[in-house]
Structures are given as C-alpha cells and as structure tokens.
Amino acid sequence: MGYEEWKAYILCVFSNICFAGFNIVSMISLNKGMSRYVLVVYGHAFGTLATAIPVLLFERNHKGKMSKEVLRDIFFLEIVCKLIPSGMEYTSVAFAAAMGNLIPSFTFVLALLFRMEKLEIGKVSSQAKIWGTVGALGGATLMTIYKGVVELKNATLRKYPAPLTITGFMCFSGTLLAAIMTLILDHI
Predict the structure, then answer these.
(1) Ranges of the chain with pLDDT below 50
(2) I need a labelling partner for 130 at 20 to 30 A (CA). Which of 10, 48, 60, 113 fits?
(3) How many CB atoms are closer than 10 A to CB 129?
C-alpha cells in the first residue's frame, strides 16, 4: 500500500492524537489553576496560528473578495458556535472526550463497507464493536441542534468559497471574543 492508501489512516490517528493531547493539556492547565476562560483564549489563538499555515499553502491565490458581509457572517457564525455549547461547562471532561469517539465508529463502519473488517456476530468482540458504534452514533444524534450552524456555514461558504480561510477567521474571531469575555469574567 502506498501513501495515498494510508493517508486516511494516518490522518485518523493524527486526529485522535490531537484530541487526546488537547484534553490532557486542558486538564493539566486547569488543575494547575489556569482560568478556564484564559484556556479558551489560548486554544483559539493556537487554532488561528495552526490554521494560518494551510491557508497560506492552499488558499493564498484565492480570487474571492472578503467583503464586510462575509466577515459579519463569519463573526456571527463564531458567536453562534460558542453560544450553543455554553452549558457544556456543566458536563465532564469525559463527555468532551467521548465526542472524539465518533472517529473510531466511522472508521469501523468504513472498514466494514470496504471489507477490511470481518463481522462475526457470534463473537463477543464483534458484538462489542457493534454496540459501541451504535452507542457513539446515538449520542451524536443528540447533537442535531448543530444543523442550523452547518447551514449558516454553508451559506458563508457560498459567498466566499475558501473553507480554510473561513475557519481561520472563525478561530481569530473566537480569540477576540474569548479575550473580551475573559477580561470581563475574570475581573468580576
């Protein structure tokens, strides 16, 4: 198998490592006394910097015009994305980590579809995989409230078809919003 055939697996593993790393760094930082608001600012700032590299590599020559309307939509999209999960501070870190469990579920389903995984219903290991996938996908179904956010992002992409740039601006907007909120909430 060449690189192209392994690319999806490599990206899946890299994605899981990033999720795990984020959860570990977050917990260590919070346990050492960092404000959860400051952590959000740092997370968005890191996201902005990490997104800038692919934007420069892949969308540098994009011919679209970044209008005030597109910037407004991006800023509004970031506000909406932050308001919807605002009650998640009352959940556990385990819940946040569980969201990453969808990746192995989709990997399992794709492996079945491409016949890379053999399903033997009589075996306990196969039953565990099935129930794990059903449980993870069932939990994700509860996240259907994000449908409106996806529609808003699609509308913004139609106006300015450069997804990496939009993501970068969303991270930057998130950094600004989080910094303002941190200044307000940490000094009350």
Answers:
(1) 84-91, 144-145
(2) 10
(3) 19
Distance, in Å, from the CA atom of 96 to the CA atom of 108, rounded to the nearest integer, reads 21
pLDDT of residue 32: 92
Specify the pTM. 0.58
d(CA 4, CA 2): 6
Q: What is the pLDDT of residues 113-132, one digit of tens each?
A: 877 778 888 888 888 888 87
Q: For the range 19-26, what are the long-range contacts, defined as Cβ-Cβ under 8 Å and sequence gap of 24 or more?
A: 19/97, 19/100, 19/103, 20/97, 20/100, 23/93, 23/96, 23/97, 26/93
Q: Which of 30, 60, 67 is nearest to 160 (CA)?
A: 67
Q: Beta-carbon neighbour count of residue 2 at 10 Å? A: 6
Instruction: Give me Rg for the CA atoms of the chain.
Output: 19
| Residue 84 near residue 177, CB atoms below 8 Å | no
Helices (H) and strands (E) in the chain, counts: 8, 0
Maximum distance among all Cα pairs of the chain, rounded to whole angstroms: 59
Look up residue 134 and give its two tokens: 């059903």
Going from the C-alpha of 15 to that of each of 30, 102, 103, 179, the distances in angstroms are 22, 12, 9, 26
Predicted local distance difference test score (pLDDT) of residue 86: 46
